[in-house]
Each structure stands twice: as C-alpha cells, then as structure tokens.
Amino acid sequence: FTSSGSVYSSIHGFSQEEIKEKLLAFPGGSIDLLKQDSGIAVLTINNPPRMNAFSGAMMVDLEEKVTQLENWTDGKGVIVQGAAQTFCSGSDLNAVRAMLPLISVALVEGNALGGGAELTTACDFR
Ligand SMILES: CC[C@@H](C(=O)O)C(=O)SCCNC(=O)CCNC(=O)[C@H](O)C(C)(C)COP(=O)(O)OP(=O)(O)OC[C@H]1O[C@@H](n2cnc3c(N)ncnc32)[C@H](O)[C@@H]1OP(=O)(O)O
C-alpha cells in the first residue's frame, strides 16, 4: 500500500496511472510543502480530523512533493511534521479496508536493525 503502488502494479498488473486513480478515490487532507530560502523545507502531513492519517489522495500528493524535493537543487534538508499537534496515525483505515490485497505480519524474533527495522514497519502488523 505504498504511494508508488508497487504491490498493486507488480502483483495485479495495474499501471501507475491506474494506481493513482484508485488512490484518488479516497480524498481528504493534504501534504503541504514549504521550501524555505535557507534550503530547509518543511513537509506537513495535514489531515487533523483523522489524526493526520494518510488518505489515498495524500499518498499521491506525497509522491508529487517528494519528486519536487528531489528536483530542488538548492535544497539541503527536509523536516517532516504533522499538523495540529499530532504526527500521523498511519494509513486511513477506510482506504486500507477497501484496497489492501493481503495482510502482512512481521514475526520478529531477535534483532531487527537498520533495513531490518524498516522492513518490519513496512508490514501491516509486527
Ligand atoms: C496497512 C496500512 C498500515 C501501514 O501503512 O503501515 C497502517 O498504517 S494501518 C493504520 C494504523 N493506524 C492505526 O491503527 C491508528 C488508529 N487510530 C488510533 O489508534 C487513534 O485514533 C489514535 C491515533 C491513537 C488517536 O486516538 P484519540 O486521540 O482517542 O482520537 P480518536 O480515536 O477519537 O480519533 C479521532 C478521529 O480520527 C480518526 N482516525 C484516527 N486514526 C485514523 C486512521 N488511521 N484512519 C482513519 N481515521 C482515523 C478516528 O476514527 C476519529 O474519527 P471520528 O470518529 O470520525 O471522530
């Protein structure tokens, strides 16, 4: 359930445009990008009514804003924050229920470090 839609595109054969269309069916919220003269940008996850959960539209928005940052030649760093005194409550559960192809569980025994830790967070449950 990534913004690039890799799970859907590789397993279900959808194109990037089809993934985008499916994600946009779940509107609400925004990802706001402020690029400052200092070279530091502020990226705000903005969906306070749902504790800043990521709607499908916000996932599309995030990919666009990350692309903008990648092409920002004067950029030095980015601060990621949540609006309204909360960071983010994960994916919008309404969208998850409608779109999740399968549920993944990371069964972690022993260390999960670096990329291993990231892999656990990419799973739905740990
Ligand atoms: C498979 C995807 C996976 C991933 O990408 O890795 C996920 O992220 S799945 C989502 C995981 N997140 C959660 O399970 C968080 C669920 N939310 C909560 O546990 C709580 O809401 C909270 C974040 C701890 C805050 O609790 P509290 O301060 O008591 O506020 P409320 O519970 O009353 O929430 C206010 C309002 O926000 C809605 N909400 C919160 N989180 C989500 C969400 N992830 N998706 C959709 N909506 C969310 C919540 O339903 C309330 O709405 P109303 O009832 O309409 O007021």
Automatic annotation (TrEMBL):
Pfam families: ECH_1 (PF00378). Keywords: Cytoplasm, Lyase. One of its GO terms (cellular component) is cytosol. It comes from the Eukaryota. The keyword Transcription does not apply. GO terms for molecular function: methyl/ethyl malonyl-CoA decarboxylase activity. Its EC number is 4.1.1.94. GO terms for biological process: fatty acid beta-oxidation. PANTHER family: ENOYL-COA HYDRATASE-RELATED (PTHR11941), ETHYLMALONYL-COA DECARBOXYLASE (PTHR11941:SF27). Decarboxylates ethylmalonyl-CoA, a potentially toxic metabolite, to form butyryl-CoA, suggesting it might be involved in metabolite proofreading. Acts preferentially on (S)-ethylmalonyl-CoA but also has some activity on the (R)-isomer. Also has methylmalonyl-CoA decarboxylase activity at lower level. Belongs to the enoyl-CoA hydratase/isomerase family. This is Ethylmalonyl-CoA decarboxylase. It comes from Oryzias sinensis.
